[in-house]
Each structure stands twice: as structure tokens, then as C-alpha cells.
Amino acid sequence: DIVDACPYGAIWWNEEKQVPQHWFFDAHLLDTGWEEPRCVTVCATNALKAVKVEDEEMARLIAQDELEPLRPDLETQPRVHYKNLWRYTKAFIAGSVSVERGGVVDCLAGAMVALRHDGETIAEQQTDKFGDFKFDRLAANGGAYEVDISADGYTTSVIEVILDDTENVGEIRLSPL
Fold first, then answer.
1. Which CATH class is domain 2-86?
2. What CA–CA distances, in Å, run from 152 to 36, 108, 126, 146, 177?
3. Cα four-point dihedral sign 98, 123, 168, 65
4. Strand 19-22 vs strand 67-68: parallel, antiparallel, or unpaired?
5. Global pTM?
6. In the predicted model, what is the mean pLDDT of the chain?
7. CA end-to-end span of the chain
8. Closest CA relative to residue 174, chosen from 114, 105, 83
9. What is the pLDDT of residues 79-88, one digit of tens each?
10. Domains of the chain: which residue ranges?
């Protein structure tokens, strides 16, 4: 069945006409002088772009804008590329670090947070002014990770995370030494 043959789910069956159909890039509009497909013209956020460039220029745009295909594992050489696709295909581990000072719980900016996987430190960062941290672009179902949080004058906290999908470990309160 041709509908099932498309690995992207981009072909559908038209019951009325009894034919498979696919979006044809608004060729009828482009043939009459439109400079871009309707979806690009009406996109209020300019999130869509249609370009007609040589392969070398497209390769440059892919590298420059970090574009990627939807399913690279299929090796279909698609002509549709996505920016920030990793936000949908990858996972992250995030959390917030706080401390109690004089009876008031406050965010802890500048705490060191290390991410470990299989005993190896794979990333480090400092918490921002809100005490937040986020390790991005991790493989979903990535197994066990350790989040190691330390700051001068406070106890160190180590949290184990089994990463099935994106995980926010919530608030981690460090205690004074």
C-alpha cells in the first residue's frame, strides 16, 4: 500500500477520489508566480522557510543553522530539514538548587553541577541566578545518570536519575556544612 510506504506518514488516502495524495509544495501557486508556498507566506512567526539552492549552498545552510532531517536513520536524503529538532527527539535532565539562609529558602546561583554517565563526567555547568541547571541533548532511554551538585560552604548532593525521557529532578536543597 503506497500510503504505508511513506516512512514519514506524508501520504494519505483520498476516499472521494480513491487515490493516494501528498502535499505538492503548492506547485500551482509557484507556477503562477508566487515566490514561496502558502504555508511559508502565512506563517506569522517566520518559522518556515523554502529555499531553492544548489546542493553546496544547502550543505552550507545545514551546517550553519544546525539543520537535520526528521529520520536520519532512514537515509532517504530528504529535502526537508528542521532546526532545533533535538528539542523533540532528545531528552534533558534539569533541576533547581536552593539553600536556606536565616530561615528563608533562596535560589543558589553559581553552584557547580556535574553530569556523570557510566562513571564518566560528560558535562558540567553552574546554576544560573535562579539556581536552575539543564543538561540537554541527552539520549532518551539513556540509562542511569548521576547529578553531582556542590557549592562552597554547603554539603554535596548526588542524585541518581534513570533517564527514560526528559526528567526534572525538582528542587535540591543543599545544607550548610
1. alpha beta
2. 56, 11, 13, 20, 9
3. positive
4. unpaired
5. 0.76
6. 95
7. 67
8. 105
9. 899 999 999 9
10. 2-86, 90-174
